[in-house]
What does this fold into?
Amino acid sequence: MMKVLVTGGCGFIASHVVDAYVDQGHEVVIVDNLSTGKMENKNKKANLYRVDICEDGVAEVFAREKPDVVNHHAAQISVPLSVEKPLLDAETNIKGTIRLLELSKEYGVKKFLFSSTGGAIYGEAERVPTDEDYPPVPASPYAISKFACEKYIQYYHKQFGLKYTILRYSNVFGPRQIPHGEAGVVAIFAEKLLNGQHPTLNHFPDEKRGMIRDYCFVKDIARASILATESQKVGIFNIGTGKGTHTIDLYRETIIALRNNGTIIPQAFDEPRRDVARAGDIRVSTLDPTKAKRDLDWEAAYDLAGGLLETIQWYSGHAA
It folds into this structure.
């Protein structure tokens, strides 16, 4: 058993990571300022410190808890906000990460795990699915900050021997996701349809089916953290399915899952409303997970339909 400190542990992805650690018998400490995280997501067996990673109070948590492992998920996650307020983005994502690395060095943390981004870092890649050797082309302050954090983590490994695993996530979906942010399209579709609203599909003029994304279920994502924590491997790993799905196919699968769960969807909603692609939208983003399979023994267990069914069941029980 290890003591694991999870930042952002009341948020969408990290709360599932906390659940997975607890299920494995580890002691979990959560650091979360609850700016986007929710108390209802908190695992009852985890100890919560309502602290911002950018504030001095986080040092007191390290001094008191002395974690074996740090799993860092807390972040400013909005690409549009990073464009609007790049300094705020850097303050949270870069300076917050450096603060955690300094404390990890000071208190003898054995391993540092970092949640990074696949699609945003690789940009409009020419090689699809994209592997870890593809040169990153971060196209937003958010992506730049995540890439900078990766470099700082690698520096702390080389300079101070801090072992690390960087997990570059594809588009994550599942229970507890809020209908905001770049990867929140499943949440957006589900909540709108459950509330009797007609969702909109954004697409480029020459591709009416929408963008192509690699949708990975959050429980698969959480399992990657468990395997990475147990592994002695150091490095960067793509965590995704390697399969691309057009937005229109995701929309139709969401409607099927809702109807199978007993939700009445008007026939007029079988096709979504249409709008143009947003600034910064990437046409294709899928990740090659071969390295994670080889070195971490990780691969996605859920297909899109299976993950959507669990997601829809959760949203149906939490509909406004």
Observations:
- The chain has a mean pLDDT of 95.
- The chain is about 40% helix and 20% strand.
- Residues 3-173+217-241 form a domain with the Rossmann fold fold (CATH 3.40.50.720).
